[in-house]
């Protein structure tokens, strides 16, 4: 009898385990998909997506001294200007005044003390080719923004209008929470932490992003089918009623 009871208990436990494996939560915890089936079809690493150059090395902390120096310098600037309340213009002007005066005096005194003046690298004149290239890039970006604003104002693209409104609303909320210096510091902090997090914990972040992307795509599909797709019909019906 005891052996029969043990066998029945073991069978019950195994059946419960099998049912638990079929639950959605257990299915979400399944192994990660292979790298060639990642979100947006991405096959490159974070370092490669960032360009693989010196900037990418800094963002993923492959040059830890320089990355830490940039983060520490920005933290010092933020503390001095934001927490201590030092005026930015006055502090920058005073620092430039002292620096330029010290360099000027050293350049004139160096001849008397038989020392060579400091060889400070200064930027040369910008070539016409570089200036034209920069102007072309700026012109293309400005024209793209103007075309987008024209489509929004004329009411030609409902989706673009909603995206612009959402972006402006988010910027307005962020502007109430923080000033410009705080936003710059937060951007630098995110640039020096998010790529590092993605590089070292890529599998977990990829799984979370995939789930969020799927849920967002489902919500977008419902919004398009139930709201956006019906807007042109309603507008057309209203115009017909007005014409009648």
UniProtKB/TrEMBL annotation:
GO process terms (BP): response to bacterium
Keyword Glycoprotein attached: no
Domain Reticulon: 55-243
Residues annotated as signal peptide: none
Membrane topology: Multi-pass membrane protein
Main location: endoplasmic reticulum
Keyword Repressor included in the entry's annotation: no
Cellular component, GO annotation: endoplasmic reticulum membrane
InterPro entries attached to this UniProt entry: Reticulon (IPR003388), Reticulon-like (IPR045064)
Record's subcellular location: Endoplasmic reticulum membrane
Pfam families: Reticulon
Spans through the membrane: 65-81, 87-106
Keywords: Endoplasmic reticulum, Membrane, Transmembrane, Transmembrane helix
PANTHER family documented for this protein: RETICULON, RETICULON-LIKE PROTEIN
Protein's name in the database: Reticulon-like protein
Species assigned in the record: Adiantum capillus-veneris
